[in-house]
Amino acid sequence: MSTVPPLARSWRAGGAGVAPEAVARLVRELRLPEPLCRLLVSRGHDRPDLARAFLRPSLSDLHEPSRLAGVAAAVARLEQAIDRRETILVHGDYDVDGICAAALYTRALRRLGASVVPFVPHRVRDGYDLGRAGLRRAVEADARLILTADCGIVAHDAVAAAAQAGVDVVVTDHHVPGPLLPPAVAVVNPKRADCDYPNGVLSGAGVAYKVSLALARARGVSDDEVHYLLDLVALATVADVMPLRGENRVMTRFGLRLLRESRWPGLRALLVSAGLGDGPLTAGHLSHWLAPRLNAVGRLEDADTGLQLLLSDGTEAGALAAELEETNARRQAVDGEILDQALTMLGGWYDPTRDRAIVLTGEGWHPGVIGIVASRLVERYHRPTVLIACPPGGAVARGSARSIPGFDLLAAVRSCGSHLERFGGHAAAAGFDVRVEAIEAFSAAFADHARTLLPQEPVPDLRIDLEIRLDEVTPELVRYLAYAGPFGPGNPTPVFAIRGLTVDSATAVGRDRQHLRLRVRDGDRTLGAIGFGMTPTHGAQARPGAVVDMAAQLQEDEWRGQKRIQAKLVDLRSAG
C-alpha cells in the first residue's frame, strides 16, 4: 500500500515569523548550518544554550522520580517485599509497552534481590488489564504483592479481589484514571489529578523506569544499573507513540545508543532477526521493524513469548526471535487479508464528500490485528476509523479504533458508551467490547458524532518546516540534522520544501514498480529522491523535463559502500 494517502494535501508552512537575529546568533555562536538554525529557532530553541542542550541532551535533564505521586509508597512496599523475601508478581500487558515494562521491572527487581514472577495476559483468553488470570497466577506463585506495569489504573474490582485474597497491589500505569483511583497500596501514574510530575506522557515502561530508579536509590544501588534498561524504555516509548519531546526524547536517544550494544541477548537477537544488525538505529527502526515483531505474538499468539525473549539470558534467544519472525509473517498475511476485505466493503458505499468516519464490521476477523488495519485505512482515507471483529456465533465483538489529528477518539467512543460493554484508550486510539446486537446502534451513533465534530470534509495537512534551496542541501546539514533526533510524534522529522526543480529522470522501482525514484536538478545541482508507494499517485507529475515542487525529508543513503544524500519524498506537485 502507498505510504502517501491518495488525497490532496494542504501544505502548511511552519517556521513563519522566525526571528532572523536569533538565527544569525545561533549560526555565529554554534557554527551550525543556517537551515538547521532556522529549524531550531522555529521549534523554540532560539538561544544558544537552549539549542546546545537540545542537540546534546544529558541524563541529568531527566525529572526526579520522587516527583511522581505515589512513588514513595510504592518504593516502601517493594522494599518490604524484598526484605521479607516475598514473591512479587510483575503483571504487564500484551502490547510492546506492557511487555517492555514487565521485562524492565523483572530485571531491575531481580538485580535488587527480589523474587519475581513475570506475567502478561493472553489477549483473547485473558483480556486486557489486571483481572482474574493475573490474580490466579499470583495465588499459584504464592505472591504477596502484585506490581502492575502499563495497566491496572481502572482495575478496581481486581485490586479489591486481590486484597480479599491477601495479595497487595501496587499499580503503575500511564493510562487515564477514572474518577477514583483503585484501592491499591500505592498508585503511580503521571496522569493522576494530584500529580505535579512535569511529564504527563510517559510510557508504561517509562513509569516503570522511574519507579525502578527510585527503588534503586533507596537500596543504595547506582543509577547506572537502571540506566542500562533505557533500551527497553526507548522501544516502548516509540511503540506506544508517546511524544518524543522533553525527557521522552532524552530517554529514547540514550536508549537507542544502548540498544545497538544491548546487555540483553533477546534484544540483540531481535535486531539480528529483523535485519538491523549493523549501523545506527533510529526511532523509525523501532516503530517499523522491532515493535511489529513483538506486537505480533501478542496479537496472534501469546505475548509471553515476547516477554521470554526480552528476559532471555541464554542461547534460546535466537530461537525465540525466529518464532517472533514467523508469527509476524503470519500477522502480515492476516492483516493483509482483512485490509483487502475492508477496501472491498468501502468500495460499495464510501463517499468522501459525505462520510466523516469509517465503521466496518467483519465476522471472523482476528481481533488482534484490526487495529493495524484501522491505522492503514486512516492513512488512506484520512477519517476516524473503527473496525469491529465479530466472533462466529459469539455474543460480544471486539472493536479497535484509530483517529486523525484534532479528533478525540476516546471522547467520541465515550459519547457512544451506552452501546458498549467496556471501552478505553486515548485521543488517537481506542478499543472496546460491544454486544453483537448493539453494533448497528453504536455504528450510527459514532458516525453522527463524527459528522458533528467534522462538519467540513477533513483534508490532511502537510507541515512544511522550511523552504530551502537545493544548494543548501549539504552533507554537513544532513549530518547535523541527526542531532535534532530522534524524530517522531512531538519532534517530527523535518520536512523541507524545495521548489522549481526540473526532473532529470523518473523510474518506477521495487515490487510491482510502486516506488518512484527521481533525479531532480536546479542549475548544476542535482539530488536523488525516492517516493515510497508514490508511482500510482504521483508518477504522472514526475515525467522527465517536468518542473516540480517537492516536500521531502533529507537522509543519508548508503549504496554499495558509498554514502550519499537522498530526499525521501513526502509529496510532489507540479510547480506553478
List keywords for this structure.
5-stranded mixed sheet; 3 domains; inorganic pyrophosphatase (n-terminal core); alpha/beta; 20 helices; 576 residues; globular; single chain; 40% helix; disordered N terminus; 5-stranded parallel sheet; OB fold (Dihydrolipoamide Acetyltransferase, E2P); Diaminopimelate Epimerase, Chain A, domain 1; 21% strand
What does this structure look like?
With 576 residues, this protein is of the alpha/beta class. The chain folds into three domains: 61-324, Alpha-Beta Complex (inorganic pyrophosphatase (n-terminal core)); 350-453, Diaminopimelate Epimerase, Chain A, domain 1, CATH 3.10.310; 462-574, OB fold (Dihydrolipoamide Acetyltransferase, E2P) (Beta Barrel). It has 20 helices and 18 strands. The strands form four sheets. Strands 3-2-4-5-6 form a five-stranded parallel beta sheet, with helices on both faces. Strands 7-8-9-11-10 form a five-stranded mixed beta sheet, sandwiched between helices. α5 packs parallel to α8 (204-218). The radius of gyration is 25 Å and the shape is globular. The two termini are 29 Å apart.
